[in-house]
Design goal:
- The protein is an alpha+beta fold.
- The chain has 31 helices and 23 strands.
- The strands form four sheets. It has a seven-stranded mixed beta sheet with strand order 12-13-14-18-15-17-16, with helices on both faces. A six-stranded mixed beta sheet has the order 1-2-6-3-5-4, sandwiched between helices.
- Helix 10 packs across helix 14, helix 26 crosses helix 30 and helix 26 crosses helix 31.
- The protein is globular.
């Protein structure tokens, strides 16, 4: 299985497309494994190409039995006599942990008309009672073993598959045996009791409400238009609300018995355990499982409708305006073979060239769209859809449609150039090489996900080094003509089918769209011009910097370095991930540098990186540095502006050159800023269409008393924004303030010091400029029993509330902050039990605690709940009662353990990652309290007692100390 996701190709070119409604069937295996386009599973009869098809793979058979693709030798594959398959892999990254997955070849496509939504409902019932585990006990059992609900214990239902996942913080026999027992209960022993079903209805309906947004409705209508008359649009996983409200338990049980059968199931186990022992446990636990009743039969998904040019205008208030052109082909059912993998790689390279061309248009002086993308996806085994799509400024759909039509025609008519192809080969190969280099330290959860990702499409599990070898075979001597011919064939089939989601109607509707397309098609297109030659102008920054001091922090395996020019360097060499290095350059004081009385311009901060450098544009920089692994991002933290990137050892010099160049010579090109401003021009319409959008827009400012560093810009502020405002906020600190570089990963101290000496260490001297006086003060809203009310323009049954109690900053009392964190975890347990399990009022209530490091006295404990507006008052009353109980009565020892253990295990897992240490060490040279907090976090959580939790509740959770925000429908 080689996966180069089309979306990954888009993202590698710096693109994103939130408005594209095409549902991608490719599944991410994480960043650990380079991959290629997927093949498709057997659902419809074989094509006429004469190639072997997926129907060669029989039930209870792994696809490598009939394919010439060799499986990853690190994985042990097996089949039990009852037909259940299993895949087991030993992996110790991170050590002492494991990932278990139970996968079913069953999803919403397999539902009858009367069962729509019940595949997903059944997934919920897997956590609500079985033969040997009473209702309500499964989650508690897992929490006692350190698994948190949601993060470590979860499930997903799709069109054609259902997956249950358990991420184990330990691999001792008790944890493994208990987890396998619970999966076995879900597989064949669920009770699906009528009263439990009735209690869960509200939870499932809450999930339906939460997911219903303008973007989702655009997807539903686009999906139905593109797959006209086919089954997938008629079987959305969430189902029909009337069925969810009224379906009897027996109807859910019917689906369970038809599809949850050993011959439809796969157990995946990856982790730090003995493979022989795990195999024996799987055989012992699942060997006696037998299907009950008559097995289900796979439905016919229907043929692709034959259509020519057809348009659909979707008027959806709150939706982002976009243009989508699609060509629909019958599904590709060819069996995965080495030849097929190579063909898919060649096709992916063609799409990469086309995406690069679309990217160039977005960076032009007068871009026809904000962002554009080209891709091809398998649509649930029913069709293959080739799509060109663009996010556009409202009212400018015609310009985008014209540009997409002409770029599609240009690449079909003239093909790709050899220099374009060579560039994409080099860039894509760098990803494959990096993945192969990190093969020995792929993370357990990513490996489990990669195996699961092959199951629905009957693909072979392969390793990164195998993938690299196939890529090299596919690209050896590859010509532009071959790529062009294969890419051209992807624009056959039905179409083009043009969809334009828009918040307001288009004059002339569909006829105007087809007329615009026809007019564009009459315009001749020219062959694309080759780019000029550009050199990388930031290879040197002057004489290398001298080290003024170097200090070892032995207990954290970290070294602090100070250069003569004042630059600080923190280095932590690790072996968590082979060939991975994370870099962050922290400059100035971040939010502390910004004036509280003015609206922050940092909402447009991404324009800084996209604006390139003074001596080279982003487009040219990507071309010059092609084949290297690097990236750059600008962030604003409470106490620093950050320039961050991710690279590998051989490209560390390049990464540091890029970040240092951004620190001293940003390009400030107006085209990049205008692109971001155009995108934000319609953002308010999108945000006000859902309660979650309104909450995300207003909560930050309200929680900080209207301080402009956290408020969201108004429509007028966005319209009047200028590049100079952003420049005045960022350029001063970047040019003159102190710099701290943090490097974590597969690097030695000496190499890190040498690389920084040539870049940041070679810059002119910088002084330690203090933050503005008083900047560390941030207001918090006064407590009030009267909620702040905001309104949204979405569904009448959608509502949300946020209730907060002021606490304190982290360092006012470090242990008390730990106590408050555990209090929040206990509150989460009680919210879930009361609001989700007992009342069915919400899908996913949450409680959290935040304690600032930079802002004195600022912190809170908060609860967030989605619920219908008519239930908000009752939910608020329940939250207040939970708070009162926590003040008045000590929590049980079991609750305390279930709150603490998952949190402690999460931190232990996180400490085995480079990402954790990049964050933990940021700022540590100038604020040693951060080191104390990092050293003490586990012990601090472990020492929290029942009395500590109650004392924290008494201190903070008073009825007269809360502040509440609610979002209700406008009407």
């Amino acid at each position: 299985m080689i996966r180069v996701s089309r979306l990954a190709l888009v993202l590698s070119a710096g693109l994103s497309l939130s408005a594209c409604a095409t549902l991608s069937h490719h599944k991410s295996g994480g960043n650990d494994q380079a991959a290629a386009p997927s093949t498709k599973a057997l659902v419809t009869p074989a094509g006429t190409s004469g190639a072997p098809t997926i129907d060669l793979v029989k039930p209870g058979q792994w696809p490598q039995a009939v394919s010439d693709v060799a499986p990853d030798p690190r994985v042990r594959f097996g089949v039990l006599p009852n037909g259940l398959r299993y895949a087991i892999q030993k992996n110790a990254t991170p050590p002492g942990q494991a990932a278990l997955r139970l996968w079913f070849d069953a999803g919403s496509l397999d539902e009858t008309d009367e069962q729509q939504g019940l595949a997903h409902f059944l997934e919920h019932m897997a956590f609500n009672g079985s033969k040997n585990v009473p209702e309500g006990d499964m989650i508690k059992i897992l929490e006692r073993h350190g698994l948190s609900f949601g993060a470590d214990t979860n499930a997903q239902t799709g069109f054609s598959e259902t997956t249950y996942q358990l991420d184990l913080p330990k691999t001792d026999d008790d944890t493994v045996d208990t987890s396998l027992m619970l999966l076995r209960e879900a597989a064949g022993e669920l009770t699906i009791a009528p009263d439990a079903v009735d209690r869960e209805r509200g939870v499932v309906l809450s999930e339906e409400r939460t997911r219903d947004s303008p973007g989702y409705r655009v997807f539903v209508n686009t999906f139905g238009f593109q797959l006209q008359g086919q089954r997938p649009p008629q079987r959305l996983p969430i189902g029909k609300t009337e069925i969810l409200r009224t379906a009897p338990a027996q109807r859910i049980r019917d689906f369970y018995q038809a599809w949850y059968r050993p011959e439809n199931a796969v157990v995946v186990a990856v982790g730090d355990f003995d493979v022989d022992a795990m195999e024996a446990k799987i055989k012992a636990r699942f060997g006696d499982w037998k299907g009950q009743g008559r097995p289900g039969a796979k439905p016919d998904l229907g043929p692709v409708a034959k259509r020519g040019l057809t348009a659909k205008v979707l008027v959806e208030p709150g939706a982002q305006t976009s243009v989508q052109m699609a060509w629909v082909l019958p599904p590709d059912l060819e069996l995965e073979t080495r030849a097929k993998d190579k063909e898919e790689l060649v096709k992916a390279l063609g799409f990469a060239v086309l995406n690069r061309r679309l990217q160039v248009l977005t960076r032009s002086e007068a871009p026809p769209f904000i962002v554009g993308v080209a891709m091809q996806n398998d649509q649930e085994h029913a069709a293959d859809i080739t799509t060109l799509a663009a996010t556009v400024q409202p009212g400018h759909w015609n310009e985008a449609l014209t540009a997409l039509e002409q770029e599609q025609r240009r690449i079909v008519q003239y093909g790709v150039r050899q220099d374009e192809l060579d560039r994409e080969i080099a860039g894509m190969r760098a990803g494959f090489v990096a993945a192969a280099a990190g093969e020995a330290t792929q993370r357990t959860t990513a490996l489990a996900g990669a195996i699961v990702g092959t199951l629905d499409d009957r693909e072979v599990v392969t390793s990164p080094s195998q993938n690299l070898a196939v890529f090299d075979e596919a690209t050896k001597g590859l010509t532009a003509d071959k790529v062009s011919a294969l890419l051209k064939a992807q624009f056959a089939g039905s179409g083009p089918l043009i969809v334009i989601p828009t918040p307001t109607a288009i004059d002339g509707a569909e006829k105007a769209v087809t007329d615009a397309y026809a007019a564009s098609a009459k315009v001749a297109v020219a062959a694309p011009a080759a780019p000029g030659v550009t050199a990388w102008p930031y290879a040197t920054f002057g004489p290398k910097g001298a080290v003024a001091s170097q200090t070892e922090v032995a207990d954290l395996d970290t070294v602090f370095v100070r250069f003569a020019n004042g630059v600080r360097l923190t280095v932590k060499p690790t072996k968590f991930r082979d060939d991975q290095i994370l870099v962050k350059a922290r400059v100035g004081h971040g939010l502390l540098d910004l004036p509280p009385a003015s609206q922050s311009p940092l909402w447009a901060g991404s324009a800084y990186i996209e604006g390139g450098l003074k001596q080279i544009s982003t487009q040219d920089m990507e071309r010059v540095l092609n084949g290297k692994v690097w990236n750059a991002g600008l962030g604003v933290e409470d106490d620093a502006f950050s320039l961050s990137g991710r690279t590998r050892p051989e490209d560390l010099d390049t990464e540091l050159q890029v970040l240092a160049a951004y620190a001293v010579e940003g390009g400030w090109r107006p085209e990049a800023f205008n692109r971001i401003k155009t995108y934000y021009g319609a953002i308010h319409d999108q945000l006000e269409s859902t309660p979650g959008g309104v909450m995300s827009r207003d909560l930050g400012g309200l929680l900080h008393g209207g301080d402009g560093r956290w408020t969201f810009p108004s429509r007028q502020q966005i319209a009047g924004a200028s590049l100079e405002q952003l420049k005045s906020a960022v350029s001063g600190p970047l040019a003159a303030d102190s710099i701290e570089v943090v490097i974590v990963g597969d690097i030695t101290v000496d190499k890190a010091v040498a690389a920084v000496a040539q870049t940041f260490g070679a810059l002119p001297a910088r002084a330690d400029v203090p933050a503005p006086a008083g900047a560390e003060k941030a207001p918090f809203p006064a407590p009030s029993r009267t909620p702040i009310v905001r309104t949204h323009k979405g569904r009448a049954d959608q509502g949300q509330l946020f209730m907060a109690w002021k606490t304190d900053d982290l360092f006012s009392d470090l242990q008390r902050a730990r106590n408050t964190q555990v209090l929040a975890q206990v509150m989460q347990l009680r919210l879930t039990d009361e609001l989700r399990e007992k009342q069915g009022a919400t899908y996913s209530p949450s409680a959290s605690a935040s304690a600032s490091v930079a802002f004195t006295g600022w912190g809170y404990l908060a609860v967030s709940v989605e619920t219908p507006p008519d239930k908000i008052d009752g939910v608020i009353a329940s939250i207040r009662q939970i708070a009162a109980d926590l003040r008045d009565k000590p929590v049980t020892a079991d609750e305390l353990e279930r709150a603490k253990k998952p949190r402690i295990d999460q931190i232990e897992k996180a400490r085995e990652t480079n990402e954790y240490w990049l964050g933990a060490l940021s700022g540590a040279q100038t604020d040693p309290r951060l080191l104390t907090a990092t050293r003490s976090v586990l012990a601090g959580l472990q020492r929290v007692t029942v009395a500590d939790v109650q004392n924290a509740a008494k201190a903070f959770l008073g009825d007269d100390k809360s502040w509440t925000m609610i979002v209700k429908p406008e009407k």
